[in-house]
Design brief:
9 strands; single chain; alpha/beta; 43% helix; disordered N terminus; elongated
Length: 275
């Protein structure tokens, strides 16, 4: 059933104890986020798929030494999934906090991924946590929680992606500081691919220039262009011994389109890059 799905997927805030999640900054996003955290400002990360939004939040939680609670939003996510619900047990009824409530109590960073997928009546429960009140009223129990120090709300979304029907209301948007994400400049993307895939510099560099050529196909009707994530996947396959052209067909070309002429054009670019 839909109820509790997200809570099950994200059972507890994880304190970032392990090694630093690798994140290569493109600008001053780390400093801006740190200032938002210190000043109790909620943050919205906007950018295409695979552009580093999730990695950035993981990195910032580690840097700020805060637990991170992630919720993947979907259209049947309810306010109760976020806030909590009464559970019926053999010995009575017990209240169970949802991930938002737990984050507010623990002073965690609560990251709502693809927030526009959630319905408006779910999203409005975030509002009192995002302004000076920093509180969460729980209607079902009558409790009002003051968010603990360190609590921060972060949402992400992918502008332009099926956005005809769904968008955030102005009253939600205007509660967040927005950080824009995009694919990094070539030399940075090359470094990321080397690091994430264990690829050599020449291969990473060639994949990045292929990526740029493929992204230019957007003008010819390619709806989804390759993200850093896909370039990393191609680099990983190559590093594991798969011939680079095959790796590109499988990891870059096929996932992006089913259209025969676009697939043909992409394969030609692969062949021209790795002769
Ligand atoms: N600036 C960066 N520094 C380090 N790694 C990066 C960076 N940008 C992208 N990556 C790599 O690309 C992968 C995809 O990034 P990530 O999962 O953060 O994308 P996303 O923006 O959250 O995408 P989606 O919208 O699909 O959730 C990461 O796992 C990481 O390997
Ligand atoms: Mg993500």
């Amino acid at each position: 059933m839909a109820a509790g799905r997200s809570a099950e997927r994200h059972p507890a805030g994880r304190m970032p104890t392990g090694k630093e999640p690798y994140y290569l900054a493109s600008g001053d996003e780390v400093q801006v986020f740190e200032q938002c955290h210190a000043r109790n400002l909620a943050v919205m990360l906007k950018g295409p798929t695979g552009s580093g939004k999730t990695r950035f939040v993981e990195h910032m939680a580690w840097r700020l030494k805060r637990p991170l609670v992630t919720v993947s939003c979907h259209d049947d996510l309810t306010a109760s999934d976020l806030v909590g619900r009464f559970l019926i047990r053999h010995d009575g009824t017990v209240w169970q906090d949802g991930p938002l409530t737990r984050s507010a109590r623990e002073g965690a960073i609560c990251y709502l991924d693809e927030v526009v997928e959630a319905r408006q009546d779910t999203i409005v429960v975030l509002h009192p946590l995002t302004d000076h009140r920093r509180m969460l009223p729980i209607d079902r129990t009558g409790e009002v929680i003051d968010a603990a120090p360190g609590f921060q709300l972060v949402i992400s979304y992918n502008p332009g992606y099926q956005r005809m029907l769904k968008d955030l209301k102005p009253s939600t948007r205007q509660r967040f500081v927005a950080l824009d994400f995009d694919f990094p400049p070539a030399e940075r993307e090359t470094l990321i691919i080397e690091r994430e895939a264990g690829a050599d510099h020449a291969t990473a560099h060639a994949l990045v220039s292929l990526g740029h050529r493929l992204r230019a196909l957007r003008d010819r009707g390619l709806a989804e262009v390759p993200s850093t994530r896909l370039l990393i996947a191609a680099a990983r396959l190559t590093a594991s011994g798969i011939p680079v052209r095959k790796a590109c067909y499988a990891a870059l070309v096929s996932p992006l389109s089913d259209d025969a002429s676009l697939v043909g054009a992409m394969r030609d670019l692969v062949d021209a890059t790795f002769v």
